[in-house]
Structures are given as structure tokens and as C-alpha cells.
Design a protein that fits this description.
Layout lengths: L1 E2 L20 E3 L8 E6 L5 E6 L3 E6 L8 E4 L4 E6 L5 E6 L3 E6 L5 E6 L4 E6 L7 E6 L3 E6 L7 E4 L4 E7 L2 E6 L3 E6 L7 E5 L6 E6 L5 E6 L3 E6 L6 E4 L2 E2 L2 E2 L2 E6 L6 E5 L4 E5 L4 E4 L8 E6 L5 E6 L7 H7 L4 E6 L6
Antiparallel strand pairs: 1-28, 2-31, 3-4, 4-5, 5-6, 7-8, 8-9, 9-10, 11-12, 12-13, 13-14, 15-16, 16-17, 17-18, 19-20, 20-21, 21-22, 23-24, 25-26, 26-27, 27-28, 29-30, 30-31
InterPro entries: WD40/YVTN_repeat-like_dom_sf, WD40_repeat_CS, WD40_repeat_dom_sf, WD40_rpt
Protein name: mRNA export factor
Keywords: Repeat, WD repeat
Length: 337
């Protein structure tokens, strides 16, 4: 293990070529373009992804060879979530829509629309039956009732929503102006706080602690901030960097049992960390391309992650690389979490 602040990168960080990890298997029938979000179902039976080519796909976690559900939105899908009962899936897309997939019938319907692309969506049925919340680049967070077309509540913001997370009755939203909004979902609009992060570059991802007493923030500047609601304990550290190169932190996943966390980034890496000891737990070799999304299974035994171009180097790099999108399933070992 190594301290957060120390560099432990070796010369193989920037190597190219297809990398595989121990205890890791690869999905087949994956989308052709970059994977934007990966999520396990609540019952831990399925794992799914959405992508920039409009594909939404799901596999049984015990069978990575062939997807069992396939939907095509014909527009980039930025995010999705499972309903609490796993019978429906909600999507957020570039066509400014919040969609709903009925798993039993295969029907896709609109829940509602923003004025600009929607990049986050979460099911709230555990707290408020039939409610869904979405965040958008139109500077709003909207609460929807899936039984009606008009919004239940619209929260007007000062800046675009960059990232969101929901856990229990807590919701956090990171905005383009570096502010983080924290909401008590029991009250929806009457109980929230706003704080400005000390990270100097735009926010990329956010994930609430297992203990729900704070959250992790990842930035485009290759830094992660561990933000406690008790500010005295908060800190930040450098990650997803190689020598003088700085890469975005694309996603953060919290282990549901141990409370440790994984970060994935534009440096082609999956890293595992412990906030309590402030140490990196596992530092595997780099993949051949950026790691763009990740999620732990609900029992914490597995980590699914997507590998593909994050477009930070331009389309010329993608054409030269000629590498396909990959999605992997990693069986976690005790020393990694």
C-alpha cells in the first residue's frame, strides 16, 4: 500500500496493447462506442451499461457472453438507473429526455424533457413512490412522477449540473461553477446546503460515502477530494496522473460493504483506495485506453468497468488507435478492497 500523496506509477502506466487483469473476465456483445455509465441491478442479478452510440444493454452477471436486454435510443445515453424493484430502467440522454424502459414489455416511454441534454437520473421510489429525479445542462434538477407528464418540482440552479449521486435520503449535485448542493430528499426542496469545492478544475464525478457522512469528488484535473460534512476531516489528493500528464477522474464507485472506493480515469487505470487510512489499496497495470465508468455489485464481490476512448485527445487519436470498446467484470480480492 502507498500513501495517497506519493507517486507509485511505474513505466508501464502509459503502455498500449490489450491489458488483462487477474480474476477478470470480459463481456461480449458490448456497445461500439464509449460506455458512459455502468450499473448493477438492485437484486444483484444483472449488470448494464449505456453508451454514446445510444445503446442500453444488460447481461446476467453470471453470463458475460451474451446480453439479455438491448435497447437503441438513436442518441447518446449519458446515464441510467434501475427502479427499486428492478422492473423498470430510467435513462438520461442527449436528446434532452428522461426515458423509462419497462423490462417486462420492452416498451420505452418518455418520463419528461429538459431544455438541454440530461446527464443524470435517479430513482427515488424507496423514499417517494413513483418519483424520479434528473439533472441537466439546462441548469435545473427536476422531480418527475412517472404517472404524469408534468414535473412535480423544478429546482432552478445557477449553473449546469455536471454530476449527481443519490443514496438513501441524501442527494448531492456538483455544478459547473464548482458548487456542490446537498439535499435531504425527505424534504426535497426545503432542506439543502451549498458549498464551493476547493478543487480548481471542473467536476467530473461524485459519489456518497457508504456511511453517508460525506462524499467523494473527482475532477478533470486528476484530483479526488474526500469531503466530510464535518469539514475538519476533509482532504484531497492527486490521482490518475503520469509524470507531467494530468487525466480526468471519470467515475468513483464506493464498496457497499467495506466503504473503500474505486476511481477510474483517463490514464487508463482502475485504482482502489481507503479514505480512513488514506492509502491506495491496489494499483494494477494500465489498460490500452481510458476507463470511463465503473460500479460495484450490491454485495461488493464484483466490479464492472468500461474501457474506451474518452475523446480527450481528439478523434484523430481514436482513428489511429483502432481499438474497440471493452467492458470487464473483476472478482474482488480481499487485498484490493
Amino acid at each position: 500500500m502507498s500513501l495517497f500523496g506519493n507517486s507509485v506509477f511505474s513505466n508501464d502506466e502509459n503502455t498500449r496493447g490489450k491489458t488483462t487483469l487477474p480474476n477478470c473476465e470480459e463481456f461480449e456483445d458490448v456497445p461500439n462506442d464509449t460506455i458512459s455509465k455502468i450499473k448493477f441491478s438492485n437484486n444483484n442479478e444483472f449488470v448494464g451499461c449505456c453508451s454514446w452510440d445510444g445503446q442500453v444493454k444488460f447481461w446476467k452477471k453470471t453470463d458475460t457472453k451474451k446480453s439479455v436486454f438491448n435497447f437503441d435510443f438513436n442518441t447518446p445515453v449519458f446515464s441510467f438507473c434501475w427502479r427499486n424493484d428492478d422492473k423498470k430502467i430510467f435513462t438520461a440522454d442527449a436528446n434532452c429526455s428522461v426515458g423509462m424502459i419497462d423490462i417486462e414489455t420492452g416498451n420505452i416511454t418518455d418520463v419528461g424533457n429538459h431544455e438541454k441534454p440530461v446527464n443524470e437520473v435517479f430513482d427515488l421510489s424507496r423514499i417517494h413512490n413513483n418519483l424520479v429525479v434528473s439533472g441537466s445542462w439546462d441548469k435545473t434538477i427536476i422531480f418527475w412522477d412517472i404517472r404524469q407528464s408534468s414535473p412535480v418540482e423544478i429546482l432552478g440552479l445557477e449553473a449546469e449540473v455536471q454530476t449527481m449521486d443519490v443514496k438513501g435520503d441524501l442527494m448531492v449535485a456538483g455544478l459547473q461553477d464548482q458548487k456542490v448542493l446537498t439535499y435531504d430528499l425527505k424534504e426535497i426542496t426545503s432542506s439543502f446546503s451549498a458549498t464551493r469545492t476547493t478543487l480548481q478544475t471542473p467536476l467530473r464525478c461524485i459519489s456518497i460515502f457508504k456511511e453517508m457522512n460525506g462524499y467523494y469528488l473527482g475532477s478533470y484535473g486528476g484530483r479526488c477530494r474526500v469531503e466530510y460534512f464535518d469539514k475538519n476531516n476533509s482532504f484531497q489528493f492527486k490521482c490518475h496522473r503520469f509524470q507531467e500528464m494530468i487525466y480526468p477522474v471519470h467515475a468513483i464507485a464506493v464498496h457497499p460493504v467495506k466503504g473503500s472506493f474505486a476511481t477510474v480515469g483517463g490514464d487508463n487505470k482502475v485504482n482502489f483506495w481507503c479514505k480512513n487510512t488514506r492509502r491506495r489499496l491496489y494499483n494494477p497495470k494500465a489498460f490500452e485506453n481510458a476507463v470511463t465508468s465503473c460500479d460495484f455489485s450490491t454485495d461488493g464481490a464484483l466490479l464492472a468497468f468500461g474501457i474506451g476512448d474518452d475523446w480527450t485527445k481528439g478523434h484523430q487519436y481514436r482513428n489511429r488507435l483502432e481499438q474497440r470498446t471493452r467492458m470487464c467484470l473483476m472478482t474482488m480480492q480481499e487485498n484490493q478492497i
